[in-house]
Prior knowledge:
mainly alpha; 2 helices; membrane; transmembrane helix; transmembrane
Amino acid sequence: MKKTISIIAIIVLSILSIYALIDLIESAYLVMRYEHFDARSSGNIFGKFIFIVISCFAIRFILKWNRKKSTS
């Protein structure tokens, strides 16, 4: 049961990370094309980057936890 929940969490976080990565690239492109980097646009892009990093660490943690539980 826990492994199933972990796999579902990994899939959901992976989908969110891919979406956030595409959104980050699109936002950076639109800011470079139509605006200039000010505090608000830079903060928005930085927040998206931080979300991607946290999602990747969460996926990595869940994978390590699953491997540790399955070998025990």
